[in-house]
Structures
1.
Amino acid sequence: MDGNKKNVRLLVEYDGTAYHGFQTQEDPHLPTIQSKLEEAVWRICQEKVRVTGSGRTDAGTHALGQVINFQTSSRIPIDKLPKALNSALPRDIRIQEAEYVQTDFHACYDAVAKTYQYVIDNQPTPSVFRRCYAYHVPHDLDTAKMQKAAAALVGTHDFASFRTSGSSARTSVRTVFQLDVIASGSSITITIKADGFLYNMVRNIVGTLVEVGRGKRQPGCVADILKARDRTKAGPTAPAHGLYLLEVYYDDERLFGNA
Amino acid sequence: MDGNKKNVRLLVEYDGTAYHGFQTQEDPHLPTIQSKLEEAVWRICQEKVRVTGSGRTDAGTHALGQVINFQTSSRIPIDKLPKALNSALPRDIRIQEAEYVQTDFHACYDAVAKTYQYVIDNQPTPSVFRRCYAYHVPHDLDTAKMQKAAAALVGTHDFASFRTSGSSARTSVRTVFQLDVIASGSSITITIKADGFLYNMVRNIVGTLVEVGRGKRQPGCVADILKARDRTKAGPTAPAHGLYLLEVYYDDERLFGNA
C-alpha cells in the first residue's frame, strides 16, 4: 500500500437505464457505471484509478446507495470531492457522500449485508414515469399471499434454486434478515436484506413471488423450491429495471479501524 | 359535422422529456405529443385526424391527465381503443381512458378548469431519478413563507405579472381556486387549480415562490407584483421539467349532453 495514498469511500446513486451494468465490460466502449466513475476521477484528480464497487449491478438496475472505494493521492479536500466529481459525471450518476476510510477497507469484501428494493407497477396501464423504474404487472396480485411466501424465505437457507447459473459463489447458503412485501397505491415494493446475494437472487425471488401473487403457485411452494436446489423449480427472473441497490452495510471497525 | 363520425375523448399520460411540447411545430419533423398521437390513430384507425388537446404543454413538461378529442369513423370498440393505440405509441405516451362524447365537445374550449402540479427536488445533491421530473433547488426553502405567498394568489386577480409575453389571451384575469405548497421529505409539491392559465403562469408563480422560500422576497411581495401588472416584477420562470398537467375539468353537460 502506497503510504502517500488515501483510501476514499463514496456513496453513489445512479439511474442504470443508460448503462451496461456497474462493472466495466470486455468491450471498453460500452458505458458502465464503473467506467464513468473512473473517467471522472481521471478528469478531476488526474489519476488513473480502479474503483471497487460493493458488487455488480445488472444493465438497467439502479442504485440509491452503491458503495465504492479507490486509492488516491489527490489533495482535493474530502468534503469538496462529491461536488467536484459530480461536475465531471453524467447527470444520471451522483456522488452523495465521500469519506476517508482505513487503507485496507474493500467495498466488496468487507460488506456484511446489503438491502435491495424491487418495485412493481401494479395497474392495468403502465405509468409512463415508471417505465424504466418499475416492473409493470397488469394482473391482480394477492400481496397477502406474496407476504406469506416471502416470510418462508427469511432465515438461513440454501438459495441454489434462486441462483441464475454463471454465478461463481462457492456456497449458495445465504441468510435473509428481512423480506417485506408492501403495497401502496399502485406500487408493490419488495425489500430484501441479506448477508449476501447470489447472481439474480432478488430478481428470481421476485419472479417467484409474482407467480404466487397471481395465484399460479401457492405460498407454500417456497419450502419445496428451496429444498429442490434447482433453478428450474423457481419462477422466472423479474426484469432488471425494477431493482435498486438500496444500502450496503459494513462494520465500523473495518471502515475506520479500532482507533 | 359528419354524421357517421364519432367524437372520442382520450385521457393521456406522457413523459414530456423527449418531446418538443404537446403541439405540432412548424417543423413537422420535431417530435411532439400531438404528432405521436396522430400517427398512432393513423396506424390503428387508418384515419388522418387532427387531435385537439385541452391546451399546450411546453417541451419537457409532463402530463398525468391531458385530455384530447378527435372525430373518427373507426369501428374499433371504444373499450379496446386504449390498448390498440398504446400498441402504436412510444412507451412514454399512454392512453389511460377512452370514451365517446357529444359531437361538438372540444377539449380546449370546453375546459372549465385545470390543475397543474409542480415538483421541487429540495436537497443538496439532486436525485438522479428526478433529474427530468423535478426542479432541483439546493437552497433551504421556507415552505411556511411560500404557503403564505401562495395564499395571496388565490382568488380572482389580474395575473399579467405572471404571464410570459407571446401569450395571445385577451384578458389576463384568472381565478385561482387552490394553490397549495406541500413539503414531504425532500420534495416540495405545488398544486394549483384555476379556471385557466396564462402562458408560463405556473412556472412564473413557482419561480416567485422559490425566491420567497429562499428569503430573497417577503411573502407580502405578491400583492405588489399582482398590482404592477408587469412581468419584470415577478420572479424567474421555473424550468419546464418540474411541471405536470394533472387534471382537466369539464361540465358533464358539455361532455355527454343533457340526455
2.
Amino acid sequence: MAVTGTWPTGRTLGYGGDYNPEQWPRETWDEDVRLMREAGVNYVSVGIFSWVLLEPREGEYDFAWMDELLDLLHANGIMVDLATPTAAPPAWFYATYPDARVVTHDGIALGPGSRGAASPSHPAYQTAARNIASRIAERYADHPTVVMWHVHNEYGAPVGEDFSDAAVAAWREWLRGRYGTLDALNEAWGTRFWGQVYGEWEHVTAPGPTPSTVNQAQKLDYARFTDHQLRALFTAERDAIREHSDKPVTTNFMAAECPTTDLWAWAREVDVVSNDHYLTAADPRGHVGLALAADLTRSVAGGKPWILMEHSSSAVNWQPRNIAKRPGEMARNSLAHVARGADVVGFFQWRASRYGAEKFHSAMLPHAGTGSRVWREVVELGRQVGALAELQGSTVSADVALLWDTESFWAQDQEWRPSVDVRHKERVRAYYERLWRDGLTVDLAHPGQDLSGYRMVVAPASYLLTAEDAANLTRYVADGGTLVVSFFSGIVDAHDAVHPGGYAAPLREVLGLGVDEFLPLREGEEVTLAWSPGDAAEARTLAADVWAEDLALDTAEIVARHLDGPAAGTAAITRNAHGAGHAWYVSTRLGIEDLAPVLRAAYADAGITPPEVAEDVEVVVRRGAEADYVVAINHTDAPATLPGVAGTELLAGVPAGPELKIPAGGVAVVRTAPRDGGGPDR
Amino acid sequence: MAVTGTWPTGRTLGYGGDYNPEQWPRETWDEDVRLMREAGVNYVSVGIFSWVLLEPREGEYDFAWMDELLDLLHANGIMVDLATPTAAPPAWFYATYPDARVVTHDGIALGPGSRGAASPSHPAYQTAARNIASRIAERYADHPTVVMWHVHNEYGAPVGEDFSDAAVAAWREWLRGRYGTLDALNEAWGTRFWGQVYGEWEHVTAPGPTPSTVNQAQKLDYARFTDHQLRALFTAERDAIREHSDKPVTTNFMAAECPTTDLWAWAREVDVVSNDHYLTAADPRGHVGLALAADLTRSVAGGKPWILMEHSSSAVNWQPRNIAKRPGEMARNSLAHVARGADVVGFFQWRASRYGAEKFHSAMLPHAGTGSRVWREVVELGRQVGALAELQGSTVSADVALLWDTESFWAQDQEWRPSVDVRHKERVRAYYERLWRDGLTVDLAHPGQDLSGYRMVVAPASYLLTAEDAANLTRYVADGGTLVVSFFSGIVDAHDAVHPGGYAAPLREVLGLGVDEFLPLREGEEVTLAWSPGDAAEARTLAADVWAEDLALDTAEIVARHLDGPAAGTAAITRNAHGAGHAWYVSTRLGIEDLAPVLRAAYADAGITPPEVAEDVEVVVRRGAEADYVVAINHTDAPATLPGVAGTELLAGVPAGPELKIPAGGVAVVRTAPRDGGGPDR
Amino acid sequence: MAVTGTWPTGRTLGYGGDYNPEQWPRETWDEDVRLMREAGVNYVSVGIFSWVLLEPREGEYDFAWMDELLDLLHANGIMVDLATPTAAPPAWFYATYPDARVVTHDGIALGPGSRGAASPSHPAYQTAARNIASRIAERYADHPTVVMWHVHNEYGAPVGEDFSDAAVAAWREWLRGRYGTLDALNEAWGTRFWGQVYGEWEHVTAPGPTPSTVNQAQKLDYARFTDHQLRALFTAERDAIREHSDKPVTTNFMAAECPTTDLWAWAREVDVVSNDHYLTAADPRGHVGLALAADLTRSVAGGKPWILMEHSSSAVNWQPRNIAKRPGEMARNSLAHVARGADVVGFFQWRASRYGAEKFHSAMLPHAGTGSRVWREVVELGRQVGALAELQGSTVSADVALLWDTESFWAQDQEWRPSVDVRHKERVRAYYERLWRDGLTVDLAHPGQDLSGYRMVVAPASYLLTAEDAANLTRYVADGGTLVVSFFSGIVDAHDAVHPGGYAAPLREVLGLGVDEFLPLREGEEVTLAWSPGDAAEARTLAADVWAEDLALDTAEIVARHLDGPAAGTAAITRNAHGAGHAWYVSTRLGIEDLAPVLRAAYADAGITPPEVAEDVEVVVRRGAEADYVVAINHTDAPATLPGVAGTELLAGVPAGPELKIPAGGVAVVRTAPRDGGGPDR
C-alpha cells in the first residue's frame, strides 16, 4: 500500500509526548485528557511498551482498553502516533523462546525484567514482532485519531550487538550475501594477517572473545551486520503495517547518541524522521550537543521537517547525576529543536511513573502535580508552540557541511589505534561547537554525497574514507570549495585496511601533503604552535595536545608550525590551493578556543562572514514559503540584542526590531521578510 | 527444647577468640593453652571451618580430635563456643553436588578452594548443613566446656545473592508465599511499566542480566528473598541443635558491614547477639565507625549485652592497605566495644596462620611470637578485661535514635537514582559522627518501632519509608519529639513506588513542606547556605554539595536558605512545629562540621545538652544494678581530663575524680554512683 | 638428533626482522629482497603465523609458496630463522576441536579471529602442533638458507592460564606427579585452613571462581603448572624438529614482560636465547626498562650472546598511546641491546601490514615507503650493525647481581597481601634504575645460584625465599659478599606459607634482625627518615612511602631511623656485619633518588667504585677474545665526553679517545685493549 496519508493535517506544530495510561487507573485517564487540553497537547504516542497488555498470552489479544483509549483521545482532539510494542517482548516470549534472547560478547544471555528487544536475528522474534505489528495496524488502520505509526523504540539501545547462535547463523548468511565467495571475504578482511584464512563458511564466527584483539575488518563488518539486522526488523514491521495502512511510518532515532545505527541508511526507510534527545547532564554546554543532534536529524531527513519524539521537561533518571532543568531551560531546548527543523515537540512522558526504572524521570505532569514549576512551564510552552503554528513545513539551510560517516566512527573507535585519546566524537563536537559559536548553521553530510551546495566542508573525523569519497572531496575543492580536514583522516578503506601509499594517501592531492608518521603525545602532554597566517597581525601561538604528525609537504603551504614536542620545527597546519578551492589540514588537536583563528581563516577562503552575535546567543533561520522565521535563543543570564531583525515576534505577538531584544534565558521568534541569497536551496 | 542454658556463668567478661588448632601439630595445642592462661583467655570459638575434618567423606565422621581438644580446653578452664562448620563445605560436597554451587548474577558458578556457603536454596546443602549441625550438637550437647553454639560464619559474606537454578525455584516459591496471586505481584512490582506483566509463575525470573536496568521492585524483593534464604539456613541449623541442646545459639553478625542481612529480623532468631568488627583501614576515623557498629549491634540486641565475637589485635589482610594498630589502639578498640555493651572481647584469631588466605591477618599470638609488642598488649588487655568483670550484664541507654532500615538501604542503593553521589552509608555515618563528636550516645532504631523513649530521632537516609512508618514518625513529633530528616527520605513505599502525592508526601504533614523536584549538583559542585537561626548571633554560612531541592513550604519556617546554585534564594533547611514537637528538614548535604550548628539547634528543641568533652575523647556509660560505669577513651595524643566523674578507676584499681585523668591514648573505667534521670530506661 | 648446527656462520651480527610476505602479492617479494639488500638485512624470521597457509585444511599441505620464498631469500644471501606457526591455529582447528579452546578464569572460551595458542593441555592441539612442526622441519631441514628454527611465538602471551576441561585434567596429573600423595598436597597447600582438605584427586579443581579469595598455594602451583604446560608445548615441538634437523632451536621470550614464563627454566630448553622487547611508551625512561630486559635476557642465557628477535623501528600499536621513536632513538635502542649481549638486531616487522590488528605498528619499511625518515634510519642502522661484525661472540660481565625469581613474583603479586602498593616490578625497577644511573652493569640472578662471583647482590623483591636459598645468601655474605635486601623479603616458603619463626626468619642471621610486624602506610602517605651513615657529613633526610616495619634488632646497626609515621623513632635501614661481608636491610620504600646514598654506602662495603659518567650516558663493555668494546650511548640532548676510552670508534671507523666524544643522542662503539681485572669471568 502506498503511503498517501499526510501528517500532520493542517498547519500546526505538534505538542505532546509518550502517553502510558495503562500504568494508571481508568479514572486517571479522564484527568489526563483534561490536563492535556489545558496544556495545549494535540499529539501523543501510545502503546510503546504495551505488548503484554495487547497480547497477554501468545496468540491471545486484548484490544478493548486500546479501543477505549483511542476513542477518548479522539473525542478530545488529540492525534495519536500509535506504536508497535516490540521493544518490550512479554515475559511469556522469553519463557517460550529462551534461545531468542540477545547474548553479549562474553556469552551472557539477557533475559526479561527490563526492556530491550530480543535477538533481531531469531526467527521467533521476527515472527512475533511482525505479527503484533500487523494485528495493531489491521485493527487501527482507519481509526481517525491515529495519524502515524511509531515502530518499536530507539533501535540499537539498550542493546545492539548480539552474539546468540541465531545471530551467528544470520551473520554467515549476511556475509555470503556481501562477499559471494570466501576468497572475497578473506581478501577483504586481510585474513592472511595472523593466519586467519577461512576455508569454510561455517568456520566464520562472530567477533567474540579471543586471546588477543580481534580482526578489525571483521568487527567493522559486524557493526554493519548489526545495523542491518536492526533495520531489517524495522522494515519488516513497517511492511506489515503497510499491508493495512497508508499512514506514514516512523521510528524514533537517537541521532548522535546511538552508535549502532547508521542513520543515513535508516532515514531512507522511514516516511518521517523522528528523534529522541536528552541533554548530557555532565556537559555544562549540553545545548550545543542538542544543536548537533538536531542538525544531524534534519540532515538525515534530507532537510525536511522532523519530529522531536522525546525530550525531557527536566531531569532524566539514567545518568550518573541527573541535573534538573532550570526555569526557562525546557523552553529554550524545545524551541532550539524547532529552530533546527522540528515540527513536533514531544516529551517522554506525559505523566511521571510511580514505579519502575524511570520513576525519577521528569514528565510533563510531574509527581508534584499541577502546582509545580514544571507544570506551569509545560502549559506556557504549549501556548508558545501553538503560537508558532505557521512555522510548520519551513526548512533550514546551511553554508557549512560537517562530515558524519557512521562507518568511519565504527572503524575508528576500535581497539589498538595509535592513541586512546583520539575519539571521533570529541573532534566532531569540537569543530561543531566552533562553528556554533561562530553563529554558523551546519548540515551534517556524508563524504560521498553531493557537496557542491556548501561553501565549506569540515572533516573532523574521517578515519575511514574510501578512495571514491576522497575523490569526491577532491573534486569539491577543485570546483571551488573550501575543505578543512582534521588529523587521522583518510587512513583506511572500507575494510579498515591502510590505503596503499600510506596514511591519508587518497587526500594527498587535495591536501598537497603526505603523512609519514603519527606522533601521538603522552597523556597530558601539551605542545605549542606558531600560527602565522597571511595577515601577520594575527600571528599568535596555539596550544595543542594528544596528537602530532610527521608531514611530507608537496604543494601545501605552512600556516602553523610546531614550536616544541615531537614535531618541533615542522608543519602543524597547512593550506593547499587546489583547482578553484582550498584545502586546510590541521594535524594536531586544538581546543575550541584555539580552533577559532584557524576556522576564521578558512571562512575567508570560503567567502563566509560569520554573523555578529553575542556569545551563547543562538540564532537559526527557518525559511517558509512566504516568510523567514528568525529563532533567537539567549543562553545567557543577561538580555541580548540582535541587530537587523525586524518583523513580528510570534511568541508575544508583538512587532519586533530593528533591534531584536531577547530577555535573559529567553527565546524570540520573529517572522521576517524572506532573505534572498545566502545559503543553498536544497 | 527450650533454651535454658545461661551464658556466661558467673559474673565475668569473656576474653579470647577463634581457635583453629587443627592447623597445627598436637604439641602446639599444649603451648596454646599454656599461653591462653597467661593471657587471661577464658573463652574460645572452635570448629568454624572444620567440616571436612569432622566429616572427611560424606557420612563418615571423625570426632576424635575434637573430643581431645574440648577436653584439653575444659581441663584448662576455657569455655567453648562450638561452631557448626557450614560456612566451608568440603571439596567432596562441591564435587558431589556441583549444582549446589552459588551462581553469580552473570552466571558464574563459584567452586571450592576458598570459603563461603553453597547455595542456601539447594536441598543438598540444606540437608548436609542440618545434618552436620545435628551431629555436632548431639555429640557435644553435654560437654561441660561448651557454653554456646556458634552457627556458621558471617552469613551473607563473602556471598549473598545467588542466581542458581535452585535459587530461582525457591524464589518463585517465596514469591507465591509473599503475594499469593500473580495479580498481586504484578501490582506490587508495577509490571505494567515497560510491559513486564507476568502471566505464569514460571515466567518470573531472578533479576539477572537484562538489556537495560532491571525492575527495581523485583530487585528489592530479591534482596528480601536472599536475606530470607540465609536466615532459613540459620534457623534450620539452630533448630537441629535445639533438638539436642538447651544451650544458647548465636551466629556472628557483621553489623554495619553486611548489606545482605536485615539484622532486625536476625536478632529475633538468635539467643545472644554476636558481632564481628574490623576497622576500615582507609578511614582515619575508623573508631567512629566502630562505635556505630557497636551501637547497631546493641540496638538490634534490644539493648541487652552482646558478644564481640571477632575483632583484630592489629592489621587485617583483606583490605587494600592493611594498617597495623599502633600501641594502645587495640585496647581502645576492645574497650570501646565493652563501653557500648559487649560482654565478650573476642579476636580472629588466637594464633596467626602460616598458610592460606589470612596468613597476614594479625592474631593474639602473632607470627613473631611472645616477644612481640602485640603479645604484650594482648596479655595486658586480658588483665584489664578481667578487672572489668563487674560490668557484665550492665546496659547502655541513649537519648537519641538514628533510623536504620536495611530495606530502605537495599532500595536506595540501586541503579538509576537521581545522583550516584547519594549513598545511604555516607549520610548515616555523617549524622552519626556529628552526634558522636557531640558526646551523645545513640541507639539505632527502625522507623516503625516505638520511639517515644527518645528525645530526638534522626533520619539520615529513609528513602523507603512506608506510610505507616511515616505516621509513626509524625505521631512521635506530635507527642513532643524532635525529628531531624535528611533529604531523599520518604520517597518510595515498600515496593519502591513513589508515594502518591509526590516525593516525601508521607512526611508532608510533619515537615510542613513538600518536595517538588530534586536538584542534584554536578560532580564536585559546592553551594553556600545562609544559616539564620533564631539567635542572630549564630548566623553564618554553610557549605553543601551533591544535592539540593525545590521545596514547596506549607507551615515550615526557613532556617537556612540557598545563596547560590540551582536552588538559589530558596529554602535549604527548615523547622516545623507539629503538635508538641518539632521536625527539621535538611534538604542538602552538609559535611560533619557544618552539621554542627544545625544539630545544636535541634538539640535545643529536644532539651538535650551535649556534655562537655574534649574533642575525640569518647565517653559512654554502662549502667548496672548497683553502679554506673563511665568508660572514657582518649583517642588523642595528649592527656585529657573529664570533670565530674568520681569513684573507682577499675583498670588501675585506684580512686578517681572528681577530675578524671585519662592518659594520651588511654582508657579509664570508673565505677560511680548510679545517675538518676538522664536517658530513658528501656 | 644432536644439535650440531652453529649459528650464525661467520663473524657477523644479524640484522633483519619478521618477514610476512604471504600478506603481499608475489611481485612485492622481489621489491622486498631488493630493499633488504639496500638495508643490509642478512637475516629474517618467516612463517610465524602461516599455519593455515601451509596446512589449509587438516592434513592437506601447501609448501609451494614457502619453497619459492626460501629459494628467493637464499638467492639473495638472507639467512632464515624458520618458524613453526603454532601460535595461530587455523580457523579449521577451532571449528574441528572447539573444546581445545583456552578458557578464561571466568569460563569464557576464546575463539578464532585473533591470534594466540589453543589450550596447551588439549591433546588435539598438542598433536596438531607437533605435526605441523615436524612437517616443516622435515621439508626444510636441509634448506641451505635455514639457519635456525623459531618455535611458536611469545609463549605465555596473549594468554597464559587456561581453565578448560583439558587443563583441569592435566593439572590433576601434574599435581600427582609433583606431590605423589594427596596428603602431601594437602600439607603443601595448607588445606586445613578454611577446611579445604581434599580426599580424592578428582575433587581438586583449578583455582577458578570462588566466593572469597582462592587458596594461594594452589594459585601459585597453577602458575607453575601453566608455565610447565607451555614449556612442554615448546619442548614437544623442539623435539619434533630435532628428529629431522640438527640446527639450533629457539623461541622468542618476552623477558621482563611475560609473567607466565619462568625464563630460568625456559633458557635451559633452547639452543639459543631470543628475546622480543618493546619500550613502554608511557615510561619516559623506557630505555632503562630496555636495559633491564636485555640484562635479564643475557642472564638467563648464562652470559652467552643472544638474539634480539623483535623490537620496533618506531611506535607499536597496542599501547594506550603509541609514542613514535624520535630520530636516533631506534639506533640507540638497537645498539643498547647489542651492548648488553645481542648478536642479532631484529624487528617486528620488515614491511608494515596494510590490514589487521597491527597495521599501525611501525616496521623497517613503513607505510610511507622509502622516502621516510624511518627507512633512512633503518638503512643507516644496517650499515652500523655491519660495522660491528667483530663484536659477535663477545660477552658482558657484571659486578652486581640483582635477584630475579619468577616464582617469588607469582607468589607476591596475588590478592590479600598487606598492601596493594607493594609490587615486585616496581621495586625491581627502582633498584635496577639506581644501579643503571650509577653506571654499573648488572646481571639478574636466581637466589639459589652461585653468587660468589659478584661483589654485591641486591634483593629488591624476594617475598618467596626458600630456607635453602636464604642459606645461599647467608653464605654469600659470610664469604665476604655485600647483600642489600629490600622489605617484604624472605616471608614465605615455596608453598606460600609464612616461614616458622615469623617474617623474614630465614634471613634473621644474615640481616641481624627480625621483622615483628608490617606497618603499611596509607594511600599517599609519606614518611621521613634520618640517614646517619658512618660519615656524618653525609647525614641527611630521606623520604619514603608505602611501607614501614616494626623491626627487632639483634646484631644489626641502625643507619637510618624513622622520624615520623607509624614506626617513628625506630630503625628503617640497617647494616649487619656477618662473617666477612655485610648485609643491608631497607625496610621502607625509597624513591630512586633517595636510594642513592644507601647504595653508595653499600658499594663501599662491596669495594665497588661507580664510574664517572654523565647522567643518562649509558656505558657497557663487551669483552671479546682480543679486544674490549666500549659501547657508549648518549640519551641526552647534549654532547657528552667519556674520559679514558681510547681506540677505534667502529661506527665511524675513526680513532677515538682518550676523551671519547659522543654526540647528542648518539652512540659510539670503541674497540679498546682488553681490561684486566674488574668483574668476574663467568
